Give the backbone structure.
Amino acid sequence: MFNKRIRIKDLLASDKANYEATVMGWVRTFRNNQFIALNDGSTNNNVQIVATLGQFDEALLKRLTTGACIKATGEVIPSLGKGQKVELKATTIEILGDSDAETFPMQPKKHSLEFLRENAHLRFRTNTFGSVFRVRHALAFAIHKFFNDKGFLYLHTPIITASDAEGAGEMFKVTALPLDGTAAKNEDGSVNYTADFFGRSTNLTVSGQLEGELAATAFSDIYTFGPTFRAENSNTTRHLAEFWMIEPEVAFNDLEDNMNLAEAFIKYVIKYAMDNNKEDLEFLAQRLEEEEKQKPQIERSEMGLLEKLNFVVDNDFERLTYTEAIEILKESNHNKKKKFQYLIEGWGTDLQSEHERYLVEKHFKKPVILTDYPKEIKSFYMRQNDDGKTVAAMDILAPGIGEIVGGSQREERMDKLTQRMEEMHIPAEELWWYLETRKFGTCPHAGFGLGFERLVQFVTGMGNIRDVIPFPRYPKSAEF
Ligand code: 4AD
Ligand code: MG
């Protein structure tokens, strides 16, 4: 058996000394020809390995370069240096993988996030990305724990679908047909998809919601957690072409139940990360503080990262309707002084992210849940309110992020649903299976979608969504 190592995190966590241990990992630095800082990704803290002068071959010492992978065995001893309780006094050091010091891109110095994005295959080996991805892991685990503890069923919805769940048409096509022009055509010149792999036109899913609704009308409480895809050409710090979404769907929930679930859920997973990733979050808070110092005073956030997370966990989200939000925005000095790029003139238009951020960051200074949007700017499946103008929708807006959750109570009444689909040109025959839930034992139900990367962004304080997913997909980028 080769792998008899102790994780560096576990080794450093204990005061225990005077025992033999083996560690394996990647060299961060090697100084004075005797002190190796070794990291294995279990924590940002490196273990110090002492290679006592004169005890090791010169040829071996030369190979202890930044990035090299080594195995070291020796005695764990109390450390004389500050910053660590113990260190490892090596008796043997074995090079598992050399790393050419001249060409290894992750030098022990500060690199820009842009540079690290171009080296996404190696950026895991930095402190920033070490912390980000350990927090991402913890949040994913907390999500499953939250729903499992509440008795929800984890449903795997399909990645390849024939429907457009959001009715927005921003989909990636999936086809096995040749793209050289030789694919069979219909009389009107369009591609004949009956000859394609699935015998029809298919695409990558934009949301698992519709399938989630099918399961909720049997299991009562379900959630999905999987990749979703949007072919929208959005080059922003909040958009990815491939992102992960969590979509609970609950029978017998109305809009208020839905808001209560979403708020409790967000608070739970943030609290989980704060309890379980203290060290990483402290590191990220420090990183953010340094980054903020580079910004002009007015752009700096008032709270530090940990303060912000505590605040979100401890305070109620502000709940108001779209109509109330429009009034606040219209009457705001910001609008009157024409500081918005898109001025708020009246009721009915969609809110831009500048408006969402104004509400959250300037007006309420806390997360906000907006409800009851005009039906024209929302999806076909949302439950129509009695006013004939709005739907039982909800968006949760978070400081620094904007929309983090989108959801609604669903239209469970068959006649209302089909009428809305007709108005919005959603072909009912393609969604016959969805409509059957309304035909056989329909029930009030509600759900929402949380963008996982936007949550990770919020918790880690990372400014760009491309830095919280291992290998980001965005326009003109799918290198790794
Ligand atoms: O608001 P959206 O489009 O809602 C849905 O897809 C519903 N079917 C959800 C539901 O009710 N079950 O997307 C939900 C969330 C957004 O609030 C946002 O956090 C995230 O998904 N999101 C994106 N995240 C990263 N990149 C993108 N391009 C995103 N588009 C949406
Ligand atoms: Mg939305």
